[in-house]
Design a protein that fits this description.
about 35% helix; 5 strands; about 180 residues; alpha+beta
C-alpha cells in the first residue's frame, strides 16, 4: 500500500512540475527538500486571477507561484521570478512558510560577469524572516555590495514588490 501511495505522489509530482524549465526545477526541488526537510512533496502552480494579478507589484503567472504540499498538507509556497542586472536578468527563488514569512531566498541563475556575490548565502540571509509587513531599503536594511549595486537594488526592489503583493493576496484571502 505504501508503495502505491509513493508511486501516486511521485507521478503527481512529475506531472505537476511542468511550470518551470527543467534546469530551474531541479534547483528549486533541491532547495525545497533542504528548506522544508522533506523528500517527497507536491509542487503545484498557484494560479492568481488575471484581474487581481494585473494590479500587483510582482508578476504572477502560471509558472512562478507554487504551493508546496507534503502528505496533502500545505507546508509553504515557492515564488520564482527574474530581476534585471546590469545587462541581463537573473533568476531567483523565494520560499515562504504558510504564514508567508520568507524561509529562504536563493539566486538560481546569475548571468553577469560581476555582481554574483548577491548569490552568497551570507548576503541572502538578510531576507529570511521578512514578512508582508516589512519594507526593505538599499544600504539601510539591505547591505550594499561593491560591484553589485544594480543587482542588489534590483533584488531589494523585487523582494519589496513580492512582500507587497503577498500582503494584497493575503488581505483578499487568496493566500
Amino acid at each position: 500500500m505504501k508503495f502505491k501511495q509513493f508511486t501516486i505522489l511521485l507521478t503527481a509530482f512529475v506531472f505537476l512540475s511542468f511550470g518551470l524549465p527543467k534546469h530551474l526545477q531541479k534547483k528549486v526541488d533541491k532547495e525545497i527538500k533542504d528548506t522544508y526537510n522533506v523528500e517527497v512533496f507536491e509542487f503545484k502552480s498557484k494560479i492568481i486571477d488575471a484581474k487581481v494579478a494585473s494590479n500587483l507589484p510582482s508578476k504572477f503567472g502560471s509558472d512562478n507561484l507554487f504551493e508546496i504540499k507534503s502528505k496533502t498538507k500545505t507546508i509553504g509556497y515557492a515564488y520564482v521570478s527574474k530581476a534585471p542586472s546590469k545587462t541581463d536578468e537573473f533568476d531567483y527563488l523565494v520560499l515562504l512558510d504558510t504564514d508567508l514569512i520568507v524561509k529562504k531566498a536563493k539566486i538560481l541563475v546569475y548571468r553577469e560577469d560581476y555582481g554574483g556575490e548577491i548569490g552568497s548565502k551570507r548576503w541572502l540571509q538578510q531576507f529570511i524572516g521578512k514578512t508582508q509587513n516589512d519594507e526593505l531599503r538599499y544600504n539601510d536594511t539591505v547591505v550594499a555590495i561593491s560591484g553589485a549595486t544594480i543587482s542588489v537594488r534590483s533584488m531589494t526592489n523585487a523582494m519589496n514588490d513580492l512582500l507587497k503583493s503577498l500582503k494584497i493576496l493575503h488581505s483578499k484571502n487568496i493566500l
